[in-house]
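Can anyone check this?
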Amino acid sequence: MNHSRLAMLGLALTLAAGPALAQRVVEFDVTPRTFSHSDFSTVEGRRAVQPLPFATYDSSSPNRMRSDTGAPSVSPGRPPEAGSAQRAQALYPDQWALLAAPPTREGARPSAGDPAAPEGGVDFLAGSSAGSSRSNFAGTTGVFTQYCENCDAANVNYPQIAIGALFFDIASGGSASCSASVIGSNTIVTAAHCCYDHDAEANNTNFTFVPAYRDGAAPVGSFAGIRARVLGAYRNNPGRANDLCVIRLAPDAGGNQVSFYTGWLGTAENFDYYQNMHAVGYPGNLGGGQFQQVCTATGSRPPQGCERNNVLNMGCSMTYGSSGGPWILYYRNGSYVNSVVSGYDNVSCTGDFGTVFNGPRFASNNLGTLCDSPGWC
């Protein structure tokens, strides 16, 4: 993405001293500050990580962020470099062997302890009776199709290879996983609650991104996070509209950026709330967070009385672990990230849990702000 506009102003405000509330962007180091007990470098270590629960925010603050009315704009994606798949197979033959092995679990079976969700492969239609808890929503929030992208076989094609699992240490203790996607040569986008722990009032660390993750396998290796950015407002007044984070990744041991193997997805800002999108992620309730799951649906805007400026609702059965997963316009035909999974509020504002979630509508005043500095996105 080329966000050259206001780049110098964004850089100055990003690094300025002072409280986070006074800063448009807060940038921080995400490498481990202390010894990490997490081992994200092994198949067993990655499989053992538990999905991060959704963050809880006050959904009754409808004006947390103004609804950006700028003209819709897109930044195009880019496919992987020629020959990158062959290089990855030569570097990681054991991981490619895992891709050919039978999966350790079924991709559509809900995991114990996580809220059950409808299994994939069919359309789920919201009830239309007067008593339905979903009858207040415009658009098709409760209608979606869910399927698994890489359960039956590995899928390392573009754009799927630019989406992966994100493992990290939580500031308040333990480790967790989210979902993320590549949107620049060395940049991924995810949810802000995956980057910052409000319980500990501290940054999460030791980020490891695994593109095209499948049941422990890392077919193109793993990439460590170096720096991260969240909106300054998120640190002090978190909500769905500002729940996004960008992370800069280090190159691999051979000096290749993540995009050498994955390419990157395009991005879309200031688009209408009612768009057909594909949400992609690694939810714990479907396949235990080990497989790339997809929902396709038409987005909508939360009703009056809820946080709704720059907030999207979308029908989907994915829950914990899908946080940060991209919502994509024109999937496989341009593939522009328009939002990321944030989570769930309540029946009145979001719908029935396990059939719908929400996320920030990408706009000039959230993603555009995070990317308006050299070297980002």
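Reply from J.R.: I decoded it. The longest strand covers residues 223-231.
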